[in-house]
From TrEMBL:
SUPFAM superfamilies: alpha/beta-Hydrolases. It holds the Pfam family FSH1. InterPro entries: AB_hydrolase_fold, FSH-like_dom, LovG. Residues 46-234 form the Serine hydrolase domain. Keywords: Hydrolase, Membrane, Transmembrane, Transmembrane helix. It comes from Polarella glacialis (Dinoflagellate). This is Serine hydrolase domain-containing protein. GO terms for cellular component: cytoplasm; nucleus.
Length: 258
């Protein structure tokens, strides 16, 4: 719909006052349209499968993400425990002593994790997308590198949000190949919209790794000044809301109120 502005000539008479009944009807009608638009937007917001960081639990992660749910009415955040026990929490894989996820050549328990995620996606769905922090974000990068996210896969997200990601060590070649392919064909079809949130002050997963992941997966990059965290300041929450709203509207083909 195109909006046009009409300017009343200065010589025109003052517009007549509307009867109260008509004015009230117009006000109520406008309110209903606005309410319907707001309700429609909320109904279109995605349902996201959320993957916590190493050593966390789904319940802990859900509490940390509560500001996002509150700021984005209609979004549903489903936080699950990873399949491998680690202390009082869980992990998506175990690592050899002294290794990090971006240095190790192996993820112990990887096959079990892939089967677990596919099972959750199928049995607890439908989901519209996925959100991952730290090891959970590296998991998303690894799945993307291996071609396990997309239209021909069991897991078919339309929206991805990655926080504090890094290059998955065992699959760095696959990720690099994906990055090269995307650079060679920037217009290549990608079946999901991605938001990569990283910090130049991240001392856990260096931001260079998160940028490599973004280059391989495509999407938007949001930088913040915090550390290794899910930033929840007002500017960040507004950015998440805008990203999720734009994705919801684009996926459902609405650019104007219905």
């Amino acid at each position: 719909m195109r909006w046009q502005s009409f300017v009343t000539p200065r010589s025109c008479c003052r517009p007549p006052c509307l009867p109260k009944s008509i004015a009230l009807a117009l006000f109520v009608g406008s309110f209903i349209v606005a309410l319907k638009y707001s309700t429609t937007r909320a109904a279109l917001m995605p349902r996201l499968l959320c993957l916590h960081g190493k050593g966390e639990t789904g319940a802990d992660f859900a509490r940390r993400l509560e500001p996002i749910r509150s700021r984005c009415p209609g979004v549903e955040l489903v936080c699950v425990d990873a399949p491998h026990a680690l202390g009082g929490g869980f992990a998506w894989w175990h690592l050899p002593p002294g290794e990090r996820s971006f240095t190790s050549s192996t993820f112990q328990g990887w096959d079990q994790t892939v089967s677990y995620i596919q099972d959750v996606w199928t049995k607890q769905g439908p989901f519209d997308g996925m959100l991952g922090f730290s090891q959970g974000a590296i998991l998303l990068a690894a799945l993307a590198a291996l071609g396990l996210l997309g239209e021909k896969s069991v897991i078919q997200p339309r929206v991805l949000m990655l926080y504090g990601s890094a290059v998955p060590g065992p699959f760095k070649r696959e990720l690099a190949a994906r990055s090269a392919a995307l650079q060679a064909d920037p217009g290549a079809h990608i079946s999901y919209r991605a938001l990569h949130v990283l910090s130049k002050n991240d001392e856990v997963n260096p931001p260079e790794g998160a940028r490599e992941v973004a280059a391989a997966m495509g999407g938007q990059v949001l930088e913040h000044s915090g550390g290794h965290e899910v930033p929840l300041d007002e500017a960040s929450l507004a950015a998440y809301s805008a990203f999720l709203s734009a994705a919801a509207v684009a996926d459902h083909g609405h650019s104007e109120p219905v």
